[in-house]
Known about the structure:
Blueprint: E1 21-22, E2 25-26, H1 32-46, H2 54-70, H3 82-88, E3 90-94, E4 98-105, E5 112-119, E6 124-132, E7 134-136, H4 137-144, H5 148-156, E8 163-164, H6 165-178, E9 201-204, H7 205-216
Antiparallel strand pairs: 1-2, 3-4, 4-5, 5-6, 7-9, 8-9
Helix pairs in contact: 1-2, 2-3, 4-5
The structure holds zinc ion.
Residues 7, 9, 12, 14, 27-28, 30-31 line the site of zinc ion.
Amino acid sequence: MMKFEPCQWPGCPAPSGPAHFVYGRAYCPQHYFSGIRLAFVEEIRQLKEGQTSTRFRSLFKRYIEALLAEKEAPEGLVRLTASQIQGRAVLSLVSEEKILFSIERHGSFIPTTYQFELSIKDMAVRHLSAKPHYVTVAEFAERFELSDRKIRALIKVGRLKATRASVLQDMWYSLMVMSGRASVPKPWDPARLDFTPRNAHLIPFSEVERFAGLEESQ
Ligand SMILES: [Zn+2]
């Protein structure tokens, strides 16, 4: 019979598991997640300002993996593996208490950037916000309490940037086909619930921010 060395978590008498190694330290299944967290915090302390390391990326992945094994994935991380999350995460803050990161998703032809907080203190990942890269004329009108007609007039005279839905729909559809998902329904199919006409205007989110800025400065 194979014998395992004891768990290296202080005061734990349990034997370590065969698959619960964290950079040379063996833990029992109960302390495996805590062991990853400890190594993760130690690695974060070693990092130079604004840089990551191979070990950081590996522990980030394993930390997420351990989290998702225990809790349901928050909105925006659903159907992503820990490796995909690690590979696609754009970090904006790394500290011993928390990590802030964002991920761009392409579930619809309008890409959305989700912001997350990975709490190292609480061993949790929280969804903070979701920002679509484009809004519809109706959404823009509602946000600024203007009529759809006024918005379309602003687009026509070039005071508001907009793009046709067809451009984004075509881009998204070819991306899906290229990544092997040829069976996805076409976003311009009128049978779809979220059907958006091909010629509809879509306004970049940067325009929402610009307009909000104009309003504030008035
Ligand atoms: Zn233990």
